[in-house]
Amino acid sequence: MKKIAFSFLPFLLLGSLLPATGWLNHFDQFISGNIYDGPYVLYKNGKVYAEYIVEEDQSKRVKVDSVALSEKASISLEVATDDPAKTFVVRLKSKLKDEESEFSKIKKTLVLSDIEGNFGPFRKLLQANGVIDKAFNWTFGDGHLVLIGDFFDRGDQVTEVLWLIYSLEEKARAAGGYVHFVLGNHELMNMSGDLRYVRPKYIGDAALLNENYVMLYGENSELGRWLRTKNIIEKVGNTLFLHGGFSGAMNRLDMSINRINELSRPYYSDSTNNYPDASTELIFGSEGPFWYRGYYMGNTPNTSLQIDSTLFKYGVRHIATGHTIVADTVSSWYNGRLFDTDVHHAAGQSEALLIEDDKFYRINIFGERIQIF
pTM of the predicted model, to two decimals? Predict the structure, then answer.
């Protein structure tokens, strides 16, 4: 990797500036050694700041640069991977907008969930199954990659995982494909200040950056703004995707997919739990799409009818969730009407779901396909 073109500063307070011709404008002069964490891209006082923590000689240093907001398009960011010798480059999006809720005429879809900051299994699944190449370029053509929440917490490469998703979105669209990032409960927990599962690494990193951890994903951060454009439920082809599940109470709410997303989006970072109406309170509660586990726990004979009601209501044939580990593999339930994609990625039991030509396959980090329905 390249040597840094100037000396490290032991600590940089908010507002500390490097020259306007710093490494954000001259990416080839940027970084050496280990990127320990980052970048965190923050908007302050009409400027765009990129903040890194780098590790050299067994010590951690903060590296910050900024450019005027008008120069945002010139920024290139280097992001670490699970291989110390490899990084990938991210260009900031010129514009962020709320995601659509429904997508039709899909030829192939690869689905996974609950990566929880484990970059290695995530990379291996995508590379082994033709979604990206070794240089982190999109190779899935017009296919759709659907990520069903919980990419935060528990692992030590959350930042890297998020930037990979972010970077793949534009690459996929350029090839006629699409990346869907449907939020799970851990995304909401991090945005709203519920930090019970955040790794100590990230609390320490926020302190070193002299930032409030929640603000790293707040409305004045690039990743925070990006997360706020995401949905909590999407219809992609003939499948409904959401993190936890769709309870009987949600069926009775009788609300369109788009309306559910519109109603939810303003409250992603809410920490008060004082919602304006019963519908919003239901969505964010234990019977809502983020937290519901009723498909797999305490099942009753009514669960099958409940699933049928959801399928009929939204005009789909299948539901896919994460959130609840019930097997070491991706699993099929209720005669293929329901799929659970939550597996033990960190323990080496990494799988995803591939939907192609109306066939369903378990796929793994070796590129193996096992038809399941």
Answer: 0.92
